[in-house]
Amino acid sequence: MDRFFFISVLGLLIVAHRVAGNMACDSIAMLEELENFDVEEVDETELSKVPSWTSERGGKVLVNVDSYGAVGDGVSDDTQAFENAWNTAWPCAERLVIQIDGTIVAPDEPKNWDPNLPRLWLDFSKLNGVLFQGNGVIDGSGSKWWASSCKKNKSNPCRGAPTALTIDSSSAVKIEGLTIQNSQQMHFVISRSDSVRVSDVLVSAPEDSPNTDGIHITGSTNVVLQDCKIGTGDDCVSIVNDSSNIKMKRIFCGPGHGISIGSLGKDNSTSTVTKVVLDTAFLRETTNGLRIKTWQGGHGYVRGVRFENVAMENVVNPIIIDQFYCDSPKTCKNQDISC
To answer: Would you indicate the residue range of the signal peptide (predicted)?
Structure first.
């Protein structure tokens, strides 16, 4: 577990850079398969049955950060209290419930951030069968980070900023009921994980906050997003880098840049995204609606995508496929399709 900073805790379309001879037939078969690729309701999935953390005697064991010295005043650094509580609970991480009912606040001064962990705040790795739940708030205190971004001031150097919450290299994880707001950069990243369900989560940041993606899925499989409301300064949802079997249902998006597959293929890299379903969404006041974005010169493809029951209001580009995507302070060089 990397170091955390805790202040308080109270309890359609087929796109390819390189087209193989049999891709068209494969894609048609995949789209037919998607007809039965439905999003299960919450009570129909094993992920909703993530067990409580129990002792050998069968009773629940409560590990409270307050008992480990947390002050919880929104000013004091309660990192050590959280680490001590986590080290007590971690040996039973396969039967763990993390209850968040208060507000977790990040340090708001970029210069005070740990230089060894410039892009991480709450980072959980190698979890199996863990439930995050509660009515609490994870607040990234990102305003000073946004002000220093090269997107805001082109004379500033472009640098990364922390992600509020990361689930990495994990399986059978459920996140339910939380609010994630004002992240320094991305709000919630699901990375290299399998079988993750996110439901009834609110993600919020100002419309002009740079690079504040709502939920970012990378290198992950069997991810379900359901009944989520997302409004940020970037993509509400972004799906990248070898992700597959991504299901979304009843998603509200806005403001933001829409629901995106990509960007893919930056720096001539290879990226694929397959089997993505969005069923029932409403997008309001976004720059894009449903988007696929790829960089010039990249390898890979997007295959097997089904979007249905989507309503939009005041969306600039309702459906857009952009194979000349460029998110760089400098003009991107034109490139031929990679071979």
So the answer is: 1-21
The CATH number that domain 15-322 falls under is 2.160.20.10
What span, in angstroms and rounded, lies between the C-alpha atoms of 145 and 172?
33
Burial class (CB in 10 A: 0-12, 13-18, 19+), 32: exposed
pLDDT tens track for 190-221: 999 999 999 999 999 999 999 999 999 999 99
| Ramachandran quadrant class, 254 (left: phi over 0; alpha: psi -120 to 50; beta: rest) | left
Q: What is the mean pLDDT of residues 79-103?
A: 84
Written as one string, the DSSP assignment of 223-260 is: EEEEEEEEE-SS-SEEEESSEEEEEEEEEEE-SBS-EE
- CA distances to 51, 112, 247, 254, 313 from 307, rounded to whole Å, are 33, 43, 10, 17, 17
Let me know if 299 is a catalytic residue.
no
How many contiguous H segments (helices) and E segments (strands) does the chain have?
A: 3, 21
Q: Residue 189 region, left (φ>0) first, then alpha (ψ -120 to 50), else beta?
A: beta
Instruction: Give the mean model confidence (pLDDT) for residues 119-140.
Output: 93
pTM of the predicted structure, to 2 decimals = 0.84
For the chain, the domains span 15-322
Cβ–Cβ under 8 Å, residues 252 and 229: yes
Contact 105, 147 (CB under 8 A): no
Catalytic residue among 17, 187, 216, 257: 257
Matching residue, tokens 């390189």: 18
Pick the residue with more confidence: 331 or 282?
282
User: Over 60: is that where the pLDDT of 96 sits?
Assistant: yes
Cβ contact 205:183 at 8 Å:
yes
Q: How far apart are CA 197 and CA 47, in angstroms?
A: 7
Q: Whole-angstrom Cα distance, residue 245 to residue 74?
A: 39
Please state the rounded mean pLDDT for residues 131-158.
89
